[in-house]
Amino acid sequence: MEQNESESLMALSLEDKIVQSKKVVKEAIEKFGTEKLAVAWTGGKDSTTMTWLFRETCRELSVPMPKLMFIDEGYVFEEIWDIVNQLKKEWNLDVIIAKNTDVSDKAKNVGDMVKVSSLNERNRSEIAKLGFDGDEFPFEPESYVGNHLMKTVAMNTFLEDHKIEALATAIRWDEQTARVAETYFSPRTTPPHTRVQPILHFKERDIWDFIFKYKVPFCVLYNEGYRSLGAKGSTVKLSDIPAWEQDLENTTERAGRGQGKEEIMGKLRDLGYM
Amino acid sequence: MLGFLKKKLKQNDRKDKVVVIGIDGVPCSLLNRFIEKGLMPNLADLAKKGTLTDMSASIPEVSSTSWTTFMTGVNPGRHGIYGFMELQKGSYRWRFPNSTDIKSDTLWDIAGRNNRKSIVINVPSTYPAKPVNGILTAGFVALDLKKATYPDSAYEYLNSIGYRMDVDTRKAQESAEALARDIEETFVIRKNAILHFLDNHEWDLFVGVITETDRLHHYLWAALQDENHPQHNFFLDFYRKLDSFIGEAYERAGDEIPFIILSDHGSTAIKQEIYLNSWLRENGYLKFKKDNPQSLEDMHEESRVFALDPSRFYIHLKGKYPRGSVGPGEYDGLREKLREGLLSLEAGGEKVIKSVLFKEELYSGALRDEAPDIVVLSYEGYDLKGSINKTQVAGKGFLTGGHTREDAVFYINRKVTAKDINIVDVGPTIMSLLKIGGNSFDGKSLSL
Hints:
Structural class of chain A: alpha/beta
Order of helices and strands of chain A: HHEHEHEHEHEHEEEHH
CATH superfamily of chain A: HUPs
CATH architecture of the largest domain in chain B: 3-Layer(aba) Sandwich
Number of domains of chain A: 1
Strand content of chain A: 5-15%
Mean pLDDT of chain A: 88
Helix content of chain B: 25-40%
Radius of gyration of chain B: 22 Å
Number of helices of chain B: 16
CATH class of chain A: Alpha Beta
Shape of chain A: globular
Number of helices of chain A: 9
Low-confidence stretches of chain A: none
CATH class of the largest domain in chain B: Alpha Beta
Strand content of chain B: 15-25%
CATH topology of the largest domain in chain B: Alkaline Phosphatase, subunit A
CATH topology of chain A: Rossmann fold
Largest sheet of chain B: 8 strands, mixed
Low-confidence stretches of chain B: none
Oligomer: heterodimer
Number of strands of chain B: 21
Mean pLDDT of chain B: 94
Helix content of chain A: 25-40%
Largest interface: A-B, 40 and 50 residues
């Protein structure tokens, strides 16, 4: 997408942004149908907003709501489980937990070492694909092998098992500069599927305006100052005031996502250090 | 367009300007090989015009130490950066040194004091950005582009072009192809940013570093070695593109302006990773309180030595560490014993350690106390690691390329007669080309 096109979409009013997102959702449903389309839901504010938009659009089109994929990477905040279970009931959602239990069964606690030889063939071949030929790796959210198996492989297995052709994710242009080039529909190769990204043009402020205007329930961690929720243990809050009352425009949303030490350690690990 | 730019440069042409292009992790031997293969015609031309030679990196040969040695012209005993991580004073918790820990002036600090402008793009270990007379955007480990960039106007520009501070190496989990695409995209945007600042802003000293080379080497060195590897051609093409970029940058600068290319270390195929803390454990120097230690906080008080990435050994001295166990009288004997043991360390029947160096042989200056007590150099292909949780001494990880110290590269479009160039010499050379004197460097300015 051209830079100025995305800029003008980001400048729309909240109502126009909702209309734009619904248009993308509608196009995705028409293209893939509701069976082969899934919604990636983390229990966070963005993917909950996207889920709401899917429900509304499905109601308008009188089609069933697609299934939701929730990745349990083994270190989910209890408060996230609370909101997931609450909304699952209230909104009558078909939530499928994507979890690589072959790996998580081998570790009692975060940090435990997992022996490669104890894993099934799929996981072993995934590890080999990474080029990793060590004997063991730590079960940690930000470790290279652990992250791959518990997030990417869990997701890919879900996509394959349910023959999903399109997965909707709630990334936004204003989150990170690296996302500026993202488009509403983006093809992926492994496994082959399309990413549908209907709320790219929402800003962090829009998400909160939307949540309050439409009374969308949200995770209590945002009340405590968390701005962006990742894995427990690698997400911190940088402020004690509620997320929506923070200076959203002049501070970084993802700063608490492993900012500082955890993020540095992650980057160093990816280059073979630590 | 180019003619206009050249004219623009000419107008305020002063011979005492310098352009430096950094190519992280590029070995001189690989460039020679690619020149021979006809893959890098621009560099081949430049080599004829000047001097392309190998250079020694800092010890240890990691980016943070080596680039800091480049940017200060002094040894780690004075600039204080011995690696990517340290322990916090009086504790066993990690600390990650950043730009605020560099205790010597940088080339751009000195240039600024002399009313000269610098543009500094993507030099590792410059995060968070400090104010500079000119423009700076920091390299690895930069976390936030806004904090990485000075002044705000430069941030606005970088943000508007979707600038990327680093390759997203996690793409390797998707596929080697996805990683390759990310390396390529990041390189293009980096190159565009460098050329933009080179063209549109005033500078006396221009430093632009490409770090995609290092990521390419770490993850895809196997692709270089194996012609049938699916990313083999990508690797070669990447170097063709790097060569075009060098050509474009040189064209903008012209023959008059000194043009330097350097790397902070070389790269080579990893035969084995060697886990120094596992060796220390096996030999009774190091003990943990748990079977599955997570960090040095789990170290047992009887421990006598521990290692930090990549090749640094620290004696667990009483008084220096909260649970230190080694008395001052034991220090020398312990180091001698370690030297002997490490020199006989073998993996697969081959010797691993080439030399064992003590801190006083390596470093001088006010910050020598903080230096590792011992640093070792390995034979090529043995990648030394300070990992805590490994159970074996030798193994393999997910990277195929590791570092070398003696095969870094130095180029300048002038004739240089000096042999044995070290990265510490580059800063002093730049300052004499800028005609800024009165500095106390550890390196020697190369006579040109």
